[in-house]
Amino acid sequence: MRRPVSLYGLTFSLPLLIWQLLFFVFPLLFLVALSFWTVKNFVMSPDFDTVNWTTMYGRAVFWQAYGATFALAAGAAALTSILAFPCAYAIAFKLSDTARRWAVFLMVIPFFTSYLVRVYSWQIFLSDNGIINVMLGWIGLGPYPLLNTVGATMVGYLTLSFPLVVLLQLFSLVFIDRTLIEAAHNMRCGRVRTVFEVVIPSARVGLVIAALFAFILSFGDFVSPIYLGGGDPTTLSILITDTTKSGQQWPRAAVIALTMIGTLMVVAFAAVQFAYKGKTK
Amino acid sequence: MTTEITSHGLTRRSLLATGAAVLATPMLSRRAFAAPTELTMLAWYGHAEPDMVAEFEAENNVKFVPKYYTGGDNMLGLISQSPPGTFDIILSDAEYVQALNAAGYVEELDPNDYAIGDFFPEFQQFPGNWADGKLFSLVTRFGFLGVAYNTDALTEAEASTYNAFWDPRLTGKVGHFDWHLPNLGQMSLLAGNASPYDIDEAAWAAVQEKTMSLRPQIGGFFDYGGTFSSLNDGQMLAFCGIGDWITGVLEKNGAKVKSVIPEEGGLQWSECFSIGKGSTKADLAKKWIQYITSAKGQAKSAQMAAYPALIPNQKGWEVLQAENPDEAKRQGMTKDAGNAMDMIRAGRIKYRQWPIQQDLETWNDFWSEYKGA
To answer: What DSSP assignment string belongs to A42-108?
Structure first.
């Protein structure tokens, strides 16, 4: 049964609605319109021409960048989730309440510093004459090329999403019904098996959402692939800057952006579907 | 309580009165001295920094309000999205000046207002500055693009050819400044094209092929900041597409990097000043262009903190030689043979410009493909 819309309800929901309209729906609609504009001699003019879509989708470099970005983001989501899980698990189950509060606080601290600054400081560690290679040199190893590699890009993605993923995983782990774990132990289920058969399935929603956030953040990131990966391989975010840098091709950049938004929506829906599969809520 | 305070000669009333007077003082002093006129400048970073504008600001009671851009496309975008009159002064790379003219974004200049006669003859009729005999912008500084290299990794003789980028010792250590125009122009010079940007389809195909063969050597594609840091920390040992405007700054700070104009020749970037269409302060803008193209202003421009440059005003060279002989020598603005003007006159330097026989888009698309390869 539908409840009538009350003034009370509206007062609280309107700001959100207005916010979404102003800062998401309208810009998105504008982006869609922009993707049909044409550019001549650096001047954009409103138009309805599919040339930007056919040009971008017809270029091999676009699909290369798409594949590379998707693979990198998926890799980052998997890697971050795997590395974050032991951390979140330990905080949720092994620490006292006070220690847990401190751990959460420590996870929030990285957000106090700009992500760009944190990525730049990684250069000091990863460059050929950087801290890591100098230390390896002491034991007669290296120097290894670390900066301007895919590995360095991954380090950047981890810097971006690791603390958030730990927090999201943590919030789902702390709300697991502990009696389920006790029951598993009572039935002689081993520690490791309990993690895989009880803890992870119970926290599935949170774990999937955490991975999804890692994917979203990495998929659209520009800073890590350019400053740690050396712009190689070209990701979609780099392709957007390339496209705008020559000839004012904002409409083509809009095509790339819309493709990215579309991809993220599909991935997000699929992830949520998977997360809540079989749940009757 | 009140009596106690009164005994110190302080009541709430007097306190309020004093406070109000104190608060009002800046307003009074503001009236006494006319507020400085704000002059907006659209430019590459550094042009409206104190080292450049402080003297002019003090002399003319002006306050510069800079809007910095990165790259000509960015600049055109900013102008086209702003109402006329937003920018009083516009600094533009020479290849974009014609686009500014064509779109009617700049005011016509009177050549008699400026010391163009003091310029080297090559710069008095600078391409793009004039259209149909009318002056629309004035070249103020320029620089050369060649091979930038780490002096520990290569000798000057080794770096004196673009083929140095293919040196096996540099595999994974060659960087690109991430803009197609200077990089492909240099590849075109290496391919032996006398006019690197005016090449037919066969020559363009050859340039693409040659460029592609460089791809395995490349360690990365860098923006302004990335270029600085990767050269500074030795992450990249050679760089394509840049020149002294980057390495000069690093050199001053003690980094072991240098730029050389290789035997195949170098490219020239040039920056020009214009007055924005509809500027309400066109007189002040004119005054600024007069100042910065005068001998004194030119010497300042050559030593700009953000990035050094060569200057087209002969008398500016003389001022620089007297003021800072080391910098004049480092940049090749001396009376000695082989100076910057001799290099231009010997035909070793070509203007960086837009491709003539292909679309700009064609070059850019190839650049994206090259990066993705």
So the answer is: TEEE----THHHHHHHT-HHHHHHHHHHHHHHHHHHHHHHHHHHHHHHHHHHTS-HHHHHHHHHHHH
